[in-house]
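Lecture notes, structural biology module. Today: joint structure prediction for complexes of two components.
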Amino acid sequence: GQQVMQIPQYQHVQEGEDFTTYCNSSTTLSNIQWYKQRPGGHPVFLIQLVKSGEVKKQKRLTFQFGEAKKNSSLHITATQTTDVGTYFCAGLSGGSNYKLTFGKGTLLTVNP
Amino acid sequence: DGGITQSPKYLFRKEGQNVTLSCEQNLNHDAMYWYRQDPGQGLRLIYYSQIVNDFQKGDIAEGYSVSREKKESFPLTVTSAQKNPTAFYLCASSVSGRTQFFGPGTRLTVL
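The predicted structure, tokenised, for the full assembly:
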């Protein structure tokens, strides 16, 4: 079945440093979504990427979808303590319009 | 106020007992999902339903059962056949394959 690998599993940074998490799918994706889960909370949707090579920005967050639509990344510039949480990527393959496959997530901690 | 509700937030049960977790949404979404989250394991799909009276097994359906009698409701039963039921359970809903909206979750502890 489809697998989505996400690295790193953990990342600890000093406030102000940059952060990147990467996702790799075993199959071509029709879209990839990113979610953030704060400690003790539930996942919250951040963004969806659909087109090959797509790049989207949300303030300090930059999301990329690879040309082959099998990988994606999330980059945070100048981290803040409010960025703490687990970031998940989730891929939708062409075989299903409903079943997202989630990566295991990257837990980001920020030292003030 | 639209959203997804899950109850209760914390649930304790004795080993060998079945337990049903509630999930209700008023977003008029056609699809609903149940995930299990364990530390370091991410989100694993238990069951999902695209329409009323229809549902499909996810990746870890063994020991669980669901029903979808109403569009708004998708209860999950954790049966005594589930060997390691202690976990954080998340319900979500979506319109087709678009954004999934998650409920606050139920933390189940089996003693």
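Point to remember: The interface with chain A takes residues 31, 35, 40-45, 48, 50, 56, 58-59, 90, 92, 94, 96-105 of chain B (CB under 8 Å).
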